[in-house]
């Protein structure tokens, strides 16, 4: 057996059915009923996670007891607000193997990715042109980020739009070429297309796992190709990893990822059982130091005159304006909760659920699994279609049976096009998912085709 990758742990004991039943008592959403009067079977965790009671309590306690202007005064409430934010920063960073100074709070993961793309765009405005006016000085760390028409940005066909559109826009603004790693027939990244990563590659952005197929990206060969490209081109590409799907379901270690060549990763609180309205960019100190500010205003400045301003060091440089204080407190509570359950044990439990679901889905007439139909190197995220039935109709039938799944293109149109479809239905698992819920899904989905095609 090969050694674990930087983001994997050795095999762990899955959460037991008894432990899952105990955890389900922590989630208030299970106290309500579905349309059919039965307990709701929520199978849309890849879109947004349900919240345990401790997250709701943490937000409420902050607003009731410690609501002040963080970092802006010395009275008690302000001190408590500041301490709460920085405590959340330190805890969330540690949860993913990073240092507090490497974590920038953002509105969501989409903003985190855009933060890097926009910073590279700003750095490119100061690109030296044969010593012309406005050239960046040799000592400017942002020179590493500058892009021009001779440079290339590499993504994958499997990306969520949040990790594709910002790079399309950056390519359009800078003249850089956009290229991509393609997919094989199963929807996994095709390593035969690694040759798109060359000495001209300046940015490599990819999702750690697909939000459509659940396939986990083969990071080792991809990062090795990026390092080789850096040696060939004299400048290592900036590697940005979208971990929205993996962070809620498996242990992450940013220090190990950074050692392997990852410069930044994006996190989303609401997919990790935490609050909405907050996410984070976790990045190396070298990248954060090189990035010029994107949003400007209060809190991120050092000295302001009528003519110019100077800016705080990271992470404050990238956190202009008021912070999502209560949301950060809720996120802190969520990662504490996930830590108690154990990320490695959650991963093992979801592997069992995935195998059970795939086995049952293979038996449903007319059902096509979109992506790998095996449970190797994948998450509990399974997209599918029913022959002759629109995915939205599939979703409505399942909803009538008290089963909640996602329908549509899941903000990932190119990977759907790869499979020759426009949309799909998708089920995905979380800490409260049970075998019984999956069996309810299987029972309901088995009747969809006969209902519409009779």
Automatic annotation (TrEMBL):
Keywords from the named record: Pyridoxal phosphate, Transferase
EC numbers on record: 2.8.1.7
Catalytic activity, as annotated: (sulfur carrier)-H + L-cysteine = (sulfur carrier)-SH + L-alanine
Record keyword Transferase present: yes
GO MF terms held by the record: cysteine desulfurase activity; pyridoxal phosphate binding
Segments forming domain Aminotransferase class V: 42-123, 146-441
Swiss-Prot/TrEMBL cofactor(s): pyridoxal 5'-phosphate
Biological process, per Gene Ontology: cysteine metabolic process
Keyword Transferase among UniProt keywords: yes
Family: Belongs to the class-V pyridoxal-phosphate-dependent aminotransferase family. Csd subfamily.
Name of the protein in its database record: cysteine desulfurase
Organism: Actinomyces gaoshouyii
């Amino acid at each position: 057996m090969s050694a674990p990758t930087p983001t994997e742990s050795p095999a762990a004991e899955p959460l037991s059915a008894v432990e899952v039943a105990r955890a389900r008592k922590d989630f208030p959403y299970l106290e309500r009923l579905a349309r059919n009067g039965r307990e709701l079977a929520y199978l849309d965790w890849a879109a947004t996670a349900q919240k345990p009671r401790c997250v709701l309590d943490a937000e409420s306690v902050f607003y009731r007891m410690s609501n002040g202007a963080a970092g802006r005064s010395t009275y008690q409430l302000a001190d408590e607000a500041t301490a709460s934010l920085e405590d959340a920063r330190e805890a969330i960073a540690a949860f993913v193997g990073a240092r507090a100074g490497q974590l920038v709070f953002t509105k969501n993961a989409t903003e985190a990715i855009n933060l890097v793309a926009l910073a590279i765009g700003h750095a490119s405005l100061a690109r030296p042109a044969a010593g012309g006016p406005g050239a960046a000085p040799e000592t400017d760390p942002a020179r590493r980020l500058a892009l021009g028409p001779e440079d290339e940005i590499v993504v994958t066909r499997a990306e969520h739009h949040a990790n594709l559109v910002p790079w399309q826009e950056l390519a359009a603004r800078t003249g850089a070429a956009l290229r991509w790693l393609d997919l094989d027939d199963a929807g996994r990244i095709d390593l035969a297309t690694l040759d798109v990563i060359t000495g001209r590659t300046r940015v490599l952005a990819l999702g750690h796992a697909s939000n459509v197929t659940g396939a986990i990206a083969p990071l080792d060969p991809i990062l090795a190709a990026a390092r080789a490209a850096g040696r060939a081109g004299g400048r290592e590409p900036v590697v940005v990893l979208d971990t929205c799907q993996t962070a809620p379901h498996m242990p992450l270690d940013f220090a190990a990822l950074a050692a392997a060549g990852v410069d930044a990763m994006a996190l989303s609180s609401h997919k990790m059982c935490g609050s909405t309205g907050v996410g984070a960019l976790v990045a190396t100190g070298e990248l954060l130091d090189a990035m010029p500010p994107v949003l400007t205003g209060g809190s991120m400045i050092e000295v302001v005159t009528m003519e110019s301003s100077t800016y705080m060091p990271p992470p404050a440089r990238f956190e202009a304006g008021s912070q999502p204080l209560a949301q950060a407190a809720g996120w802190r509570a969520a990662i504490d909760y996930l830590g108690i359950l154990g990320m490695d044990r959650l991963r093992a439990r979801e592997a069992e659920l995935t195998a059970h679901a795939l086995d049952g889905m293979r038996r449903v007439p007319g059902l096509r699994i979109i992506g790998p139909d095996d449970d190797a190197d994948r998450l509990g995220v399974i997209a599918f279609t029913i022959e002759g039935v629109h995915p939205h109709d599939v979703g409505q039938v399942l909803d009538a049976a008290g089963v909640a799944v996602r329908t549509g293109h899941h903000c990932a149109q190119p990977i759907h096009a790869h499979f020759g479809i426009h949309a799909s239905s998708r089920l995905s698992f979380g800490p409260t998912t049970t075998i019984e819920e999956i069996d309810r899904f299987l029972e309901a989905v088995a009747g969809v085709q006969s209902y519409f095609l009779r």
